[in-house]
Amino acid sequence: MILHALTQYYQRKAESDGGIAQEGFENKEIPFIIVIDKQGNFIQLEDTRELKVKKKVGRTFLVPKGLGRSGSKSYEVSNLLWDHYGYVLAYAGEKGQEQADKQHASFTAKVNELKQALPDDAGVTAVAAFLSSAEEKSKVMQAANWAECAKVKGCNLSFRLVDEAVDLVCQSKAVREYVSQANQTQSDNVQKGICLVTGKAAPIARLHNAVKGVNAKPAPFASVNLSAFESYGKEQGFIFPVGEQAMFEYTTALNTLLASENRFRIGDVTAVCWGAKRTPLEESLASMINGGGKDKPDEHIDAVKTLYKSLYNGQYQKPDGKEKFYLLGLSPNSARIVVRFWHETTVAALSESIAAWYDDLQMVRGENSPYPEYMPLPRLLGNLVLDGKMENLPSDLIAQITDAALNNRVLPVSLLQAALRRNKAEQKITYGRASLLKAYINRAIRAGRLKNMKELTMGLDRNRQDIGYVLGRLFAVLEKIQAEANPGLNATIADRYFGSASSTPIAVFGTLMRLLPHHLNKLEFEGRAVQLQWEIRQILEHCQRFPNHLNLEQQGLFAIGYYHETQFLFTKDALKNLFNEAKTA
After folding, report:
1. Can you tell me the distance from the alpha carbon of 541 to that of 214, in angstroms, rounded to the nearest whole number?
2. Looking at residue 491, what is its pLDDT?
3. For residues 7 and 249, is the Cβ–Cβ distance under 8 A?
4. Rounded CA gap, 73 and 77, in Å?
């Protein structure tokens, strides 16, 4: 299913959208281009780089697919009409000159071979003439911006005729046909079989192209290299027969997605998304989940608001809403790529799932809260680990939470455990953890995992009687009384007792209640003491005794009750107004 959906994406892009490599080609970053005339004379060295996130990045061009090379004779393998400066100009860089000379000889021989095959192609003839002239090649290294080129490790170079505004020499129609014919000749000489993607007879790929953007080094998405998997005399790619064309299409599609705006990364999990047809959701999903980054911090907020509007006006219930939409989550593992999640849905269903996710996360915030209205997933998950370092969060947990967010599923228990551990370590509850705990509990209630319990609200629920929630509220009021009675206090009861109060209440609350009269007597304003004492009585109506132990779900409710009550108490005149209303009722 995954390979089939990826090949469909390739075909969609090739037929209508464009921007995807045809067979035998790939999109490659070419930082510098050697511009020549039809006689092969050097004109200029063109810098294609642009500043992106404080780093210069070269433009991507469609070029003949690079060839794999390794070993002591790797210099014999050169790419067609593009390569690094060792091959194109015999520039040694950090390597020895002898190696660079061998590389250049290999590159020149390949261009001369191409010239014989395409004698009427002006661009190929010009490149061959340029390579035959030591004087013209030396002019490149005398160019004003050559030092910039030389600083780029393994800088790739290609050629463009001065008369051509955009196209490189390697992009001419004749060169494309030559590459296509060469690929066809290779396919004729390989073993044939039934392709498991198309179901048709086709030349079978022995090895699959590498995928970039998941592992530190490119790695195959599908491969077999152990004899234990061999059977019936079949080995490597013949064990799971995928046609050469289908293999090219799915690997090119995946590489294109991983290099596009359709990708988002959370920890070491990289996810890509695409639709059977082009849809606005395809372009906005990454920012909705991942955030807009430092350059566009509010981009995801605008995207989520647009999504909500589309749901309210029924936009995604139109025909496009029924179109298939795919989500693929990947992570690195040694020399392999691991599939963390795969989901096939529709545009409408996914839109509703994302809206449900942000609905479940909604939590009351202060007027000057530093937290955004819709917190992106990486920032949310950063609340589960020390200093927000995502590398300390297990890949499985990241994948499970991401999958649940995108598919409106129940969140894993490991999320609850991680949030509670962090609460106890920091002796407090953050907005991010409160939001995640609320989402976990509400989804567990809807799934029937938590019986006889109603869903949590965005703000304080004064009628909620769950013991964990009630004790969390009580703890927040006791902390507030202590803080107002002792201005400038270095450590409050929360700094000392939050963890134990939320797990073993009986060990803490007896002591705290005995200290209560002392703290109330120290309050500067008697009216304030009356209001806070009234709030405690209201809370204790729902608590007959302090339990010995709270289970995990009740500990989560404790944290949310504490958070809700704290936000309420810090809202100006909220308690005063409520007290006055109760007094006059």
Report:
1. 55
2. 86
3. yes
4. 8
- Provide CB contacts within 8 A for 405, sequence distance 6+: 289, 353, 354, 357, 377
Structure tokens at 303: 């995207």
Cα–Cα distances (Å) from 1 to 197, 321, 343, 401, in that order, read 8, 21, 10, 23
What residue type is assigned to position 32 of the chain?
Answer: F
Point out which residues pair with 202 in neighbouring strands: 193
Burial of 83 (0-12, 13-18, 19+ CB in 10 A): buried
Q: What is the DSSP letter of 411?
A: P
Distance from the Cα of residue 228 to its chain's centroid? 34
397 token code pair: 């947990």
Q: Is the Cα torsion angle 346, 348, 351, 357 positive or negative in sign?
A: negative
The 3-class SS string of 113-127 reads HHHHHCCCCHHHHHH
**DSSP letter string over 26-64?**
EEEE--EEEEE-TT--EEEEEE--EEETTEEEPPEEEEE
- Angstrom distance (rounded) from CA 257 to CA 213: 10
Which pTM does this prediction carry? 0.81
In 3D space, the residue among 246, 162, 234 whose CA is nearest the CA of residue 196 turns out to be 246
CB within 8 A of 420, min separation 6: which ones? Answer: 502, 552, 555, 556, 559
Token pair belonging to 553: 């779900």
Structure-block tokens of residue 202:
């086709």
pLDDT of residue 260: 85
Alpha-carbon gap, residue 221 to 240, rounded angstroms: 13
pLDDT of 585 reads 47
In the numeric block, which tokens belong to residue 358?
A: 């942000």
Nearest Cα to Cα of residue 119 among 178, 165, 179: 178
Q: What is the pLDDT of residue 243?
A: 86
Bridge partners, residue 60, by sequence:
29
pLDDT at 170: 93
Give 40's strand partners: none
Q: Running along the chain, 585 residues long, what does each successive block of 10 average in pLDDT? A: 92 78 86 95 94 85 84 85 94 84 94 94 96 94 93 93 88 91 71 85 82 85 66 65 87 90 87 89 86 68 79 60 90 85 91 92 85 87 90 90 93 96 94 96 94 93 94 94 87 92 94 91 82 90 92 96 93 77 63
Tokens 């490599």 sit on residue: 21
Scanning 279-346, the segments in alpha helix (DSSP H) are: 280-290, 299-312
Residue among 76, 64, 66 at smallest CA distance from 124: 64
